[in-house]
Write a structure and sequence with these properties.
Length: 204
């Protein structure tokens, strides 16, 4: 028996996080045991690495290696055991984020990304990835309205976020079965209907 692994992705301000809990609750009404988690993070060590990653300036390769180090821990301690027990894991970001942010946004060599992906999770890929997409100016406006200190990624310039968005869209176009794009400019209700339909088609 193997559970299902669903990830949420998108540029900062795309509004994906509010749908993660909603999907988990809906899956529980379908009788599934569901773990909600996030990256970077998801374990005690991973959350410590998250604090460093979101706040401390560092070299691009250090950033990439720490993302994958946190991911290795997350897979070993939470994701792989849960899937092996037949449980579901709903994760706010995974390796597509490294592809988009460190690859697209910061220009990490793709071969280095692929080598780490192969090393850290050769046999695990999400069963389904929901990519929340929306125009950059709308996402930037949402971030600007947030009444909190912005992290290192949110503080990046618009052209960084545009490259992240384009990398996500390119990744979706080369993985059309796994990655389904959701128009995040739609209403919350429309997005919920779309998520439910997509998960039913892809996973249930
Ligand atoms: P979050 O705000 O969606 O929780 O994500 C934290 C930030 O970390 C977000 O700006 C994207 C960034 N990030 C990367 O740059 N690479 C990664 O591999 C992951 C998982 C997140």
């Amino acid at each position: 028996m193997k559970g299902k692994f669903i990830t949420f992705e998108g540029i900062d301000g795309a509004g994906k996080s509010s749908h993660v809990e909603w999907l988990a609750d809906w899956l529980r009404t379908q009788g599934k045991t569901v773990h909600v988690t996030r990256e970077p993070g998801g374990t005690e060590l991973g959350e410590k690495l998250r604090t460093l990653l979101l706040n401390d300036p560092m070299h691009l390769e250090t950033e990439t290696l720490l993302m994958f180090a946190a991911r290795r821990e997350h897979l070993a301690r939470l994701i792989e055991p849960a899937l092996a027990r037949g449980e579901w894991v709903v994760c706010d970001r995974f390796s597509d984020a490294t592809y988009a942010y460190q690859g697209g946004g910061r220009g990490l060599d793709r071969a280095k990304f692929l080598a780490l992906e192969h090393w850290v999770h050769e046999h695990v890929q999400p069963d389904l990835t929901l990519l929340f997409d929306l125009p950059l100016d709308v996402a930037r406006e949402r971030i600007a309205r947030a009444s909190r200190v912005l992290d290192r990624f949110e503080q990046e310039r618009a052209d960084f976020h545009e490259r992240v968005r384009q990398a996500y869209l390119e990744r979706a176009s080369t993985n059309p079965l796994r990655i389904r794009t959701i128009d995040a400019s739609h209403s919350l209700e429309e997005i919920k209907v779309k998520i439910e339909k997509t998960v039913l088609e892809a996973c249930l």
